[in-house]
From TrEMBL:
Pfam families in the cross-refs: HTH_18 (PF12833)
Species of the source: Flavivirga aquatica
Record key words, sorted: DNA-binding, Transcription, Transcription regulation
InterPro entries listed in its UniProt record: Homeodomain-like_sf (IPR009057), HTH_AraC (IPR018060), HTH_AraC-typ_CS (IPR018062), Tscrpt_reg_AraC-type_HTH (IPR020449)
Gene3D superfamilies the UniProt entry points to: Homeodomain-like
Protein name, as recorded: HTH araC/xylS-type domain-containing protein
Lineage, top ranks: Bacteria, Pseudomonadati, Bacteroidota, Flavobacteriia, Flavobacteriales
């Protein structure tokens, strides 16, 4: 379980600029797919979902506490396509980034 905690710590530091699980595996010194196996063993979410949820949570924070546009937030979160960011956000949050912001006003 210690490796999963270290993984979550690394995500807290790098979730904006590092979207590839291979980066985290390398930093932790584990073989590819090991984090996935460890997550399953401990009934945790898959590593890619843990990372994505952190990105969505931070995006929600930015939508609630800044006046940045959805486009600006998507680029700040290192998504190359604002449409793709909106699609991913909606799939995780249940509504578009714009609707999410309006619901929090």
């Amino acid at each position: 379980m210690e490796i999963l905690e270290k993984f979550k710590d690394l995500i807290d530091k790098h979730f904006i600029d590092k979207h590839d699980i291979a980066f985290y595996e390398k930093e932790l010194g584990v073989k590819p797919k090991y984090l996935s196996k460890l997550s399953k063993k401990h009934n945790a979410s898959p590593p890619c979902q843990i990372l994505l949820q952190k990105q969505i949570d931070h995006s929600k924070y930015l939508l609630e506490h800044t006046k940045k546009t959805v486009k600006e937030i998507s680029y700040e979160m290192n998504f190359s396509d604002p449409y793709y960011f909106s699609k991913i956000f909606k799939s995780k949050a249940g509504m578009s980034p714009t609707k999410y912001r309006k619901s929090k006003e």
